[in-house]
Amino acid sequence: MAPSRPVTSIISLEASPSNSRANRTYLVYFITGNPGLIQYYYTFLTHLFDLLSPKFSSSISLKLRIFGRSLSGFEVDEDSKFQESPPHEKGPPYGLEEQITQSHKVLEDVVCYDRLNGGTDVRVILVGHSVGAYILLEIIRRTREKAANDPDNGVRIAGGICLFPTVTHISHSPSGRKSSWLLNRLHFAHTASIVVKVLTLLLPFSMLSFLVSSLMSFPSDAARVTTAFVKSKYGVRQALYARDEMLTITSDRWDAEIWGAAHPSKHPHPRPALRFLFAKADHWVADETRDDLIKVRGLSKHSDEDWKPIMEVDEVRGWPHGFCIKHSIPVAERVKMYIDDVIQSDLERP
Questions:
Q1: Over 60: is that where the pLDDT of 3 sits?
Q2: DSSP category for residue 310
Q3: At residue 79, does pLDDT exceed 50?
Q4: CA nearest to 189, candidates 231, 242, 244, 237
Q5: Positions of E strands within the chain
Q6: Residue 348 falls in which region: left (phi positive, over 0), alpha (psi -120 to 50) or beta
Q7: Cα–Cα distance for residue pair 289/132, rounded to 1 Å
Q8: Is the pLDDT of residue 261 over 80?
Q9: Residue 88 and residue 249 in contact, taking contact as beta carbons nearer than 8 Å
Q10: Is the bond preceding 272 in cis, omega lying within 30 degrees of 0?
Q11: Predicted local distance difference test score (pLDDT) of residue 4
């Protein structure tokens, strides 16, 4: 049986005023974790859209777009409204630097598309999951550097929301410690991908999907996406090409222009508002790494340093690192609150 919903590489949702032309567009640009298939987040993004769209549909001046794409090397089809050129000619697997560069380029392309279609004032809210949060912070840094010299044409980022973020010392996490030795083996990703292809070659899509659902206790939609991922040309090899993440995601590499500071920025765009959501127990984020980041960079409860990022640890619900498998709805509800805060703050700015 074929999947009931096609697995695509792009999700794009839009809400705009019914009887007038919007003066401002808020683009929620989502960056996946690894494995980087956007369809894992279909329920999350569509529920987030359903929560946000009434505000924009009833507004006389605001338009909403939610856009997300699979990371390069994870695509399972060629159906894309925003056709992309590959990060380099040799093909997958792509390293973290190439993922950042390509995600940044696609963001600029989508903003350009919206501007050409009447959205003269486009403001971006980045949302990143896991390694997508690292990509998010790097995009903010690079976007602000570029916009400093050309603010009228540069991308303006209003906020960034980091979900279960792996932004420092990923190799110190429980899973990082367990997998580093294997991922560091030179030909591991290539060899493992060949083994997976051989083992699954003769299995029909429906049978493999059933096995994934049964063995991993995945809902049917996540099982179908996983099956499409396993049967894709490069997906498994790209997912296992995480050695680059281990080597790159180490110490905090961002300055006050990203994290905020008490003094005003000289940049023509205000600093983006940052929100972080951590799990109480995360196999890809070490507790000490998380606690150190919150202590150094986060806003404490009794502090008047309201320019600092708000960092929250889920102490109650037990949301896991891979929230998109079974916990999309409650996490989308939390993210909706973050986005409301970012937009409210941004509306008060020029």
A1: no
A2: E
A3: no
A4: 237
A5: 10-15, 24-31, 62-69, 122-129, 156-163, 273-279, 310-314
A6: alpha
A7: 17
A8: yes
A9: no
A10: no
A11: 46
Q: d(Cα 204, Cα 41) in Å, to the nearest integer?
A: 24
Contact criterion met (CB below 8 Å) for 173 and 282: yes
Cα(279)–Cα(331) distance, integer angstroms: 11
Which one has a higher pLDDT value, 198 or 308?
Answer: 308
Per-residue pLDDT at 56: 87
Residue-wise pLDDT tens digits, 191-222: 777 887 777 777 888 888 888 888 889 999 99
Longest CA–CA span in the chain (Å) reads: 62
CA 198 to chain centre: 31
Which residues lie below 8 Å from residue 197, measured CB to CB, with a gap of 6+? 236
| Residue 265 near residue 271, CB atoms below 8 Å | yes
Q: In the chain, what is the straight-line distance between the N-terminal and C-terminal CA atoms, in Å?
A: 53
Distance CA 214, CA 191 (A): 26
- What is the token pair recorded at 270? 């205000």
Q: What is the pLDDT of residues 121-160, one digit of tens each?
A: 999 999 999 999 999 999 999 999 999 988 888 999 999 9
Top-confidence residue, 330 or 212: 330
Amino acid identity at 131: V
> 12-42: per-residue pLDDT in tens?
999 987 666 778 999 999 999 999 999 999 9
Distance CA 238, CA 193 (A): 9
- Strand partners for 11: 68
How many CA atoms lie less than 13 Å away from 133 in the CB half-sphere? Answer: 21
194-197 contacts, C-beta under 8 A, 24 or more apart? 196/230, 196/236, 197/236
Q: What's the full length of the chain, in residues?
A: 350
Domains defined along the chain, listed by start: 10-172+253-347 (3.40.50.1820)
DSSP labels, 192-219: HHHHHHHHHTTS-HHHHHHHHHHHHT--
Label residue 85 by pLDDT band (50, 70, 90): low
Cross-sheet strand order for the sheet of 310-314:
10-15, 62-69, 24-31, 122-129, 156-163, 273-279, 310-314
- The answer to whether the peptide bond before residue 165 is cis (omega within 30 degrees of 0) is no
- Per the CB < 8 A criterion, the answer to whether 330 and 317 are in contact is yes
